[in-house]
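Researcher: Please translate sequence to structure tokens.
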Amino acid sequence: MSEAKWYVVHTYSGYENKVKANIDKTVENRHLEAQILEVRVPLEDVVETKNGVQKVTQKKMFPGYVLIHMIMNDDTWYVVRNTRGVTGFVGPGSKPVPLTDEEMAPLGIRRENYVVDYEVGDSVKVIAGAWADTVGVVQSINAAKQSLTINVELFGRETPVEISFAEVKKL
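Model: Translation complete:
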């Protein structure tokens, strides 16, 4: 099986988030989670000054483009290419060209591989992100996406949350 690489997809301008949502939904429906690992619309923080007040907003780094971390094969190519709002892959002709590690570095997307010793049923503490200081129980481990699905208590009910390996530590 080949290795997953990052590809760039051209979209209609303003449809980047819609394309991301459509691809995510298709991946879930067709059970392609092992082949299409991640879809991103790269954002950057921009400081705007209006009427003397500084405000930080997020803007798209590449309007009209979406990054996809996937294993390229006929099925994944077809799914992405035939998503509403996608005009095509970036590359000569119909052959998509993956981004190199040097091209990915300035985007803040790192290829760090974490070696973890988590098992289903282990208790972990979230140390970063929106769920910081939350304790949960590991429900599943996705080595390809380098993430865990943990159950956290939210409004008195167990809720599954996907967390990156980098954001948790074992209790």
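Researcher: Any highlights?
Model: The first helix runs from residue 16 to 30.
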